[in-house]
Design a protein that fits this description.
Elements: E1 3-8, E2 14-20, E3 29-33, H1 41-52, E4 56-60, H2 73-81, H3 85-101, E5 107-112, H4 114-125, E6 129-135, E7 153-160, H5 166-178, E8 183-191, H6 205-223
Parallel strand pairs: 3-4, 3-5, 5-6, 6-7, 7-8
Antiparallel strand pairs: 1-2, 2-4
Length: 224
């Protein structure tokens, strides 16, 4: 459904990604950030699904063509740890947001796992954004302080998550509320990465569909 494109970062460098356009020409935009596996077919599928829901969706390719197999967590961790999160957020992700905003459209940001953490960083650093939806990712506080979040956020977390643990989620929610920030936070009795239908060991269809409905409703409310 979508296509591979090249877009400009604010610094003028080229970045690549996968773009799926909505049927209507004046659709709002959503930047979709990958899990630590890379720009997988599953993430492209999420872009296609956003397009069917009425959004232009662009997933920047943070690993520049490399996709890690689902079983290889060591390789995924190595790729993720090689990223410069400030650069990728303020340049690559912001470039994607600027691309979607070029016709005056409102733009949201969403992401999964690694991408969920990037969504929170982006909420503090990317002025083109209007709203964000986080899926089971929280960055270190030195990368993004809740007090610096500039847009309304919705967040989806799993109660059986050993990365974004329930304690970490509680602390994040508390810090957001203490800073007076707008957050809708949902918890699911599911495992980390429960939205990813390609990973049957963790996928929870009921929780995934509930989260998807909430996310698209939130974006429609804030992006139009």
């Amino acid at each position: 459904m979508g296509t591979s494109i090249t877009f400009k970062r604010p610094d003028g460098k080229d970045a690549g990604g996968y773009l799926a356009n909505a049927a209507r020409g004046n659709a709002p935009g959503v930047v979709v950030i990958q899990e630590w596996w890379g720009l997988s077919e599953q993430i492209k599928g999420m872009c296609d699904r956003f397009a069917l829901a009425g959004f232009d969706a662009l997933a920047p390719d943070l690993y520049k063509g490399k996709v890690v197999p689902y079983h290889d967590t060591d390789a995924a961790g190595k790729e993720m740890n090689s990223l410069d999160f400030t650069d990728l957020t303020t340049q690559t992700v912001r470039g994607a947001a600027q691309y979607l905003a070029r016709n005056g459209a409102k733009v949201g940001l969403t992401g999964f796992c690694l991408g969920g953490a990037v969504t929170i960083i982006g909420a503090t650093k990317i002025p083109e954004l209007t709203a964000g939806v986080v899926f089971y990712g929280i960055p270190p506080e030195q990368a993004a302080k809740p007090a610096d979040v500039k847009i309304p956020l919705q967040a989806h977390f799993a109660n059986k998550d050993d990365w974004c643990t329930p304690a970490a989620v509680d602390a994040f929610e508390k810090a957001m509320k203490a800073a007076g920030k707008s957050i809708e936070l949902f918890r699911y009795d599911a495992e980390h990465a429960f939205v990813n239908e390609q990973r049957q060991s963790v996928h929870d269809r009921e929780a995934a569909e509930l989260a998807w409905g909430r996310a698209t409703e939130f974006f429609r409310k804030h992006l139009g």
